[in-house]
């Protein structure tokens, strides 16, 4: 994810295709089956899809059972009671909780989740959407040992600076649009621009300027060394924000639509801090959906109640002092210009009003967004999230195998690179989405199933449909269904 601008100076974000296949498995199987001409082959293909899913599900069954057993020990609600029943030492518990994180992170990786980096956070927070207050985490309420130990033993690249306290995973990209009158927000924009103009005219702007907490993101045209083909695959999404609103009567009096890219799924992992006497072993795993990038703070754990920043108070006090000094000086002049006095008073009152209305409106929006994130955007937490991830791994693995086998079946032998390109083309042409297909992972599973081989020059080819079904063989689910049908007859 990078930020750039178009020829018309639009605020654009370039989003690179992700490895997740955003197609429902039933739709994928039906559409691919319809591309097969002969009915016999189509039936064999549908049978193969079922056997692939049943087999992959069996592969992961034991690993997922271990994960769920470990989670039950560190569930914030009831984990403490289960740990007491196990009568384990602190050292043994330390090992178990690190094992739980290892399994959990493996499942997240298999589900194509990525850890949010500092760069992505900077790009996301370089603009505002619906949340206009500076939200910070109360770090004193978060444990700093659990994740620090894990990342020492399992190094990751580009870890964010807060990774010792909590970690955020994200997957998938979407777009959120909101249409409203935004009356108070428009008023805030007008007052902000009037204040900026007043500072520029009075040459007092330098007194209030401060270095941005967000590092500048370099123009992608200057920094990215990518090929034209790769750039064409990327998705460009425009940020439509109130800050760049054109001050026309139509925009000011009517409804407008703002737009922001979203993270389709976000998962936050952390532990609360506790005293040394009774250590809290609970590990929180929270799952969110459709989080606007600029409002990423919604998913942060243990948020502080927002308030005016120290810089806002400094600017406010300096403005009042300078305004009063200038006003008194103007009144003491032999011929006080009423228009100068009016301009100073208007600017002073306008800035005070800006701070007050902006903060009050932001507080209302903040409370609304927090409530919405709890009821609408939080998918699940704890056990529900872990179960969802386990099923998601199976769905992604099955889709990878089905797509890669279908390409080999229809188009014949292919090198690894050719197969990668063909799979991505199929997804784009048949389903209209871009995906960075994980061809190596797919081929490994095909080889494990025993339904693909390599020729003397390393090209990959698949077994015929009927033979592939024979190689996998009847699954336990098929035998159970067959026995049930026989009993019913």
Automatic annotation (TrEMBL):
UniProt keywords, alphabetically: Membrane, Transmembrane, Transmembrane helix
Transmembrane region(s): 313-332, 338-357
Highest taxon listed in the record's lineage: Eukaryota
UniProt keyword Membrane, yes or no: yes
Protein name from the UniProt record: Aminopeptidase
